């Protein structure tokens, strides 16, 4: 059965690694050996299509498998023929800071818009990177609850997460973009249900009281949960689907109210010219279809989505939640949300982490 999808609405940084365009196996972990070479001098002229070129991709950990699958697809086009890749994956904030500090990148794929904004402020990415049709967003998902097989605790709602004895795993907001989406989803559902900001703070404090592990990245959090830590993992829908595709014993729950996750991609100012062609290709239906196969919700209309292995209902893999929050509509965008909630000294979530003893 085929459905047409319409859009709804610090771990250690992994070293650079040279990879061919063949996709990594879905279960491959973001580990590598250092194979980066420094470059200097003026940028060369754009290679002709089909000429050998190496592009450097720096990203957050979760979409590695999807990126590798799309790289293989792109390698079969004129623009992508002859391109090989160096890659670095890790926690989104850590990766962004590494590029700011000199880590080579042609294209970045982060969890949060603010991690690209950091590179704009550093003069590495053009200020208009997000002014196109899709706002610079290349992949999308929603926040879900990953649970043990059969959901033995009967976790169904946000209120269930703060019950006595429920142990939660979520990445650390200090390093991970995934964590920030997760925590704001929890905060936002209180407001959406008519609660006050004080109610939301009380709820979020109770949530952190139940957190038993704060790994550095979304992928590290998944690994910790799959190794036996905790009862519930706050995660991306695509991360839960990918884990099930890999044969992991995990189920997931889409809560009635959740937050849409928008992951940005951007090309650096001094990037190899072929990087722009790569970014354009990410919005092609076939590329968004590859994202969908691995559990991401397409960011363009008209993508043919067949059955998605690992989804709760493979024939209807991306059901619309009853209430879908967005960072722009419900939090004023990341420009407002980051300082309000995650400022290292004064952020609301930062302070809650300190008060609950969950700041690291």
Count the beta strands: 13
What is the H/E order? EEEHEHEHEHEHHEHEHEEHHEEHHH
Q: What is the helical fraction, as a range of percent?
A: 25-40%
* Total DSSP helices: 13
* Biggest sheet descriptor: 11 strands, mixed
CATH first level of the largest domain: which class?
Answer: Alpha Beta
- Can you tell me the number of structural domains? 2
Topology-level CATH name of the largest domain: D-Maltodextrin-Binding Protein, domain 2
Low-confidence stretches: 1-45
| CATH structural architecture of the largest domain | 3-Layer(aba) Sandwich
Q: Alpha-carbon distance between the termini? A: 45 Å
Q: Please give the oligomerization state of what you see.
A: single chain
Q: Going by CATH, what is the homologous superfamily of the largest domain?
A: Periplasmic binding protein-like II
Q: Helix- and strand-based class?
A: alpha/beta
Percentage of β-strand residues: 15-25%
Please give a handful of descriptors for the protein shown.
360 residues; alpha/beta; D-Maltodextrin-Binding Protein, domain 2; 2 domains; eleven-stranded mixed sheet; two-stranded antiparallel sheet; globular
Report a brief summary of the structure:
33% of the residues lie in helices and 18% in strands. With 360 residues, it is α/β, with parallel strands linked by helices. Helix 1 links the parallel strand 3 (53-60) and strand 4.
